[in-house]
Design brief:
The protein is of the alpha/beta class and about 400 residues long. The chain folds into three domains: about 100 residues, no CATH class; about 150 residues, P-loop containing nucleotide triphosphate hydrolases (Rossmann fold, 3-Layer(aba) Sandwich); about 80 residues, Ubiquitin-like (UB roll) (Roll). The chain has eleven helices and 15 strands. Strand 2 and strand 3 form a beta hairpin. Helix 1 packs antiparallel against helix 2 and helix 2 runs parallel beside helix 6.
Length: about 400
Amino acid sequence: MGILERIKEIEAEMARTQKNKATEYHLGQLKAKLAKLRTQLLEPPKGSSGGGDGFEVTKFGHGRVALIGFPSVGKSTLLTMLTGTHSEAASYEFTTLTCIPGIIHYNDTKIQLLDLPGIIEGASEGKGRGRQVIAVAKSSDLVLMVLDASKSEGHRQILTKELEAVGLRLNKRPPQIYFKRKKTGGISFNTTVPLTHIDEKLCYQILHEYKIHNAEVLFREDATVDDLIDVIEGNRKYIKCVYVYNKIDVVGIDDVDKLARQPNSLVISCNLKLNLDRLLARMWDEMGLVRVYTKPQGQQPDFTDPVVLSTDRGGCTVEDFCNHIHRSLLKDLKYVLVWGTSARHYPQHCGLSHGLQDEDVVQIVKKKEKEEGGRGRFKSHTNAPDRISDRVKKAPLKT
């Protein structure tokens, strides 16, 4: 029996099993088996070379946004309107067959926008090059899920299910569970909060399913079985997602109002160019980019070319700012002067752990090199030769 058949068999068993106190341990074991099989499905086949037939493109700019959705929902048209890059759009499905990149210039930053081929139901199992599309989405900072406002609401659930099947967690944060494998000592189970979805026995069963018999587990929140499995797997990607409903010009105003009020949702129309500026602003807020301007000593700040930082790409502290400029800058750094919303007063002397905010101005003050032997008349050495015979004699005075 292949991996896909085993996955379908486990899913069918979970569907016909009633959910109650008596079956929660059995369901937990089935979820662990399902997660192991899906991880095996994503691994490359044995004996194959490292290169594949994917369409990954080189990272460029200060952030990356991926467009994901069903065929013929307006992804290529949206890319053309936001970036100016031509992406072929037609009235038939699967017009885009490869990844087409474009660059958005917004707020002095460059954001890479990727137009990916449309994915269909079963993409997590490899249908319609779905694995290559989702692999590109994993390397993005933000996912724009483009949906058709005139179609059924089930498309959103289908796409979310396909992305979660391959380890993508949309609009979620990593669970507060500490997990560490050990060589000996058995399983240590501790918790700092009351647990309502999982207990010690179920945790032991899930760990034994993964053949883990020595580990340390600490729950810092009321987590579920799925959260524990995600921590054990360790290959989950937590990414932000905005649901973009296109073609709102073909539905009624009541439907548009209903879609716009859903969480993490935005309504646009590429045909009438409606709400595209709000889409760019929402992308900027979700990515959390921080622009930091530099100020040389004794000069005006340079507001033309900012240093762009983000929490997902390194961090937004003074130390991350110095490392972004040059790795050796931290050795000579004495302190920094900061102007902006992150400073309590202007200017503020800050250290390496100070968190920077958008449009801050930073001046770096480096350590001065120490002069050996004192300064001025307190110098303890001269440049003259040690021996008198080696000194240059003065020219005789003219009489």
